[in-house]
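Lab notes, practical 5.
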Amino acid sequence: MLGGCRQTWARLMNAPLTFGNAPKQASMAFAEHCCYHATDLSVLDVIVQCSKYWRMIISPSYDAVATNLNDIRQLIAASCVQAGRDPLEVTLVAVSKTHPADAVREAIAAGQLVFGENRVQEAASKFHDLRQAVSGLRLHVIGGLQSNKARDAVRVADCIETLDRAKLADAIADAVQREGRCPDLLVQVNVGDEAQKSGVPTAEADDFITLCQSRFGASLKGLMCIPPAEGNPSPHFDWLAARAKRHGLAVVSMGMSGDFEAAIAHGATHVRVGSAIFGHRG
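Output from the prediction step:
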């Protein structure tokens, strides 16, 4: 019984994403279970540890954001130097999805002004007050975008990175007319041709890019990709950079927390880093 309890506790303490949305009662019930069965653990120790874990779920600390940002910037600069590039060529998009406005404020205080969000509704509510208080903020929509959310995205985003199909292009064009503004646009390419991922298939990419260039003109700035999770991402990065060059597009958004250094070596102009800055959250 004690071994099972300890295994459960280990899983709990090492899997915040799994337990991040668990009800408070679950943590309290687990504490009671430990107190009852783990006779060699003090009641106080168990309760204290459960309480610490629960506070982490409810109100995680973002004190490390500034330090993390500094570390990432240094890695970006070092990667650029190694690749013979100017660090100013690479824009860091801090991916704040699922993290609260307080986390964004910590990043802003550390000098970060470009952020990425998956969901348009979350982005609109989170950044409304921040935009009023801070000039120069730029918001990128980096999650898959439904056509019926296109107008909201056009209204709030400075850049939409996930243009990947004709129906969405139609919706964005209509929203641009209605809103009287056009954010920067990137075509998302499914470089691994994975059935479960968004993005225009590689075989259709050239035609779709050309279509979007004729439709949106200079507002189409570049390309974006998320390479397969398994395997070497470098060939996919090379493919995207070459396609951007073929079409005369300056922006290549590729590379995340685990592979942005490789992406920079292969021509990324924008890297999207989230967990390495803000930590994990559900």
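Observations recorded by the TA: The first strand starts at residue 91 and ends at 95. The beta strands are 91-95, 114-117, 138-141, 159-163, 184-190, 200-201, 220-225, 251-253, 270-273.
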